[in-house]
Amino acid sequence: MIETGRIWFNGELKEHDDAKVHVLSHVLHYGSGCFEGIRLYKLKNGKSAVFRLKEHIDRLYDSCKIYKMEVPYTKDEFIKGILDTIKTNKLEAGYIRPLIFRGYNQLGVNPTCNPVEAIIAAWKWGAYLGEEGLKNGIKVCVSSWRRPAPNTLPALAKASGNYLSSQLIKMEALDMGFEEGLALDYLGNISEGSGENIFLVKNGELLTPPMASSSLAGITRDVVVKIAKDLGLVVKYETLPREFLYLADEIFLTGTAAEITPVSSVDNIKVGCGSRGEMTKKIQEEFFKIVEGENEKYREWLTIVE
Ligand code: PMP
């Protein structure tokens, strides 16, 4: 069970056991919530900093906008709530989970008659796909579950209900002995992992699916694109057929939780040499320099917790 300490709940810091909602809350029945996953890093200089806080808050409010959820807090108030949650729990490094959801009033499908409520939790959380996975790569499979078509559920909204698709992908992969599942989009092209974007390395170029691939606009993906450009690498947003997964020289997954996790095999077919590739390693190293405050150019991505 995750140990979170105090939780910010509708503007107040509550004790862990007091942060409760009613069982008739709309979100529990219909998935009507939007959330974020944000990381807090311990910097090399000993301070702690939230990584790309502004971008996460912007995406959270954008997700809510798509679902017509009017957030009863300004972005600045919300950011203060996040920093207060970290400070009250004396957290130095970990994961931050803001959630904005439809609460309890009516139980019809129309969500708009319910109050919009918010929580922020934060806790210690290490490598999502394992320390070993970060170093040597993970075994993944192509899921039999596709991502929803663009005119069904909006993939750019990080909405709670979208994660029913992710759960099917993840459970199937684990049941079959893999560590993660990759979903194709409705046309059968590569979309993303259950909670990560994907990059392929082919002939020295970095390839990632375009926005319209039923995948989330990942903030870590954006970091990787900037790192790649700094390293003088070619990055292309391209529609990628499934078989590219078997032909790529390197593959890695990106996400706030997953960070940059190499893929060692897809459907039991080795990727490249079957362990972390050279380009993946280089990008990982640059990534960790940035999040630990060792790259001046990206200092503004770090919100120091004073
Ligand atoms: N796709 C999905 C479905 C995700 O849940 C995540 C994690 N938020 C990502 C991609 C990666 O996004 P980010 O790098 O912003 O964490």
From TrEMBL:
GO biological process terms held by the UniProt record: isoleucine biosynthetic process; L-leucine biosynthetic process; L-valine biosynthetic process
Chain's gene name: ilvE
Record PROSITE patterns: AA_TRANSFER_CLASS_4
GO cellular component terms, A-Z: cytosol
Keywords: Amino-acid biosynthesis, Aminotransferase, Branched-chain amino acid biosynthesis, Pyridoxal phosphate, Transferase
Required cofactor names: pyridoxal 5'-phosphate
Catalytic activity: L-leucine + 2-oxoglutarate = 4-methyl-2-oxopentanoate + L-glutamate; L-isoleucine + 2-oxoglutarate = (S)-3-methyl-2-oxopentanoate + L-glutamate; L-valine + 2-oxoglutarate = 3-methyl-2-oxobutanoate + L-glutamate
Protein name per Swiss-Prot or TrEMBL: Branched-chain-amino-acid aminotransferase
Family: Belongs to the class-IV pyridoxal-phosphate-dependent aminotransferase family.
Nucleus among keywords: no
Record carries keyword 4Fe-4S: no
Entry's EC annotation: 2.6.1.42
Biological pathway: Amino-acid biosynthesis; L-isoleucine biosynthesis; L-isoleucine from 2-oxobutanoate: step 4/4; Amino-acid biosynthesis; L-leucine biosynthesis; L-leucine from 3-methyl-2-oxobutanoate: step 4/4; Amino-acid biosynthesis; L-valine biosynthesis; L-valine from pyruvate: step 4/4
GO molecular function (one): L-isoleucine-2-oxoglutarate transaminase activity
Pfam families (alphabetical): Aminotran_4
Function: Acts on leucine, isoleucine and valine.
